[in-house]
Structure formats: structure tokens, C-alpha cells
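Predict structure. Chain length: 139.
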Amino acid sequence: GAGAVLWVADRWSPQNRQVGGREAALAAAAQVAALVPGVSRSGATLTALRLAGVERSAAQRFSMLMSLPVTAGAAGLTLARSRTLTPSMVVGAGTAAAAGAMTTVALSRRGGDRASVPALYRLALAAIVARRLQLEGSV
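Prediction complete.
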């Protein structure tokens, strides 16, 4: 599935473009796919940008920047619906922000020879889930 497409994009798409209007529109359309349960918003946008030929660091940066309005909107909606700011909400928001910052730093420091690690992780996880479903008779 999605892991295989990201792997193909990492391996065979020309990766020499920067994000322009066409690439931004593609990433926005891919972000809509995240409305489907189980589809990663960042994975969908990153894969679309990589397939469009955007170099990995620019694709990662743009995908992360695209997440800011979505995340802020979700947080604002949650707060508006609850009408109360609880300690657990503050801790949760702080933890999510810290994890996001650490992930962004880690991804920006990763070397070019490890571009397919996220894709391989998703393929391995998909294989494990498929095998478990097969053993349970669900497939």
C-alpha cells in the first residue's frame, strides 16, 4: 500500500525540484486522503511531494509546515468544544509539541542513504498486521 508507494518515490522519482504551486496543490490533495482512517496525513503529503520530484528535505519541511494549521485548528476545536483547559490537555499538547519538534529535528538530520526507512517500516508493519489477520481468519 502506502509504504510501497513511498518506497518507489524514494527510489525512482527524480528528486531535484522545490515546492511550487503545482506541488503544493498535489500535497493539499494528498492531505485529503488522511480523512480515511489509517492514512497518515504526513505520509500522504510526503509521498505526493516525493512522487512530484521534490527533494526529500524540502518535502519533509513543507509537509511539516502544512501540519501546523491543521494541528492548531484541531486543538482550537477541541478547546472550544470542551470550554475548559484541563491539566491533562496542557500536558498532552506539550508532549505532542515536543515529540513533533524532536521528530522534525531527527528527520532533518537523517542522511540521504536512509531515505526509505519510513517506507520499509510501514511495509514491515503491514506484513505483520496482514499475517495476524490471516492467522485469525479475518482475511
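Summary: The mean pLDDT is 80.
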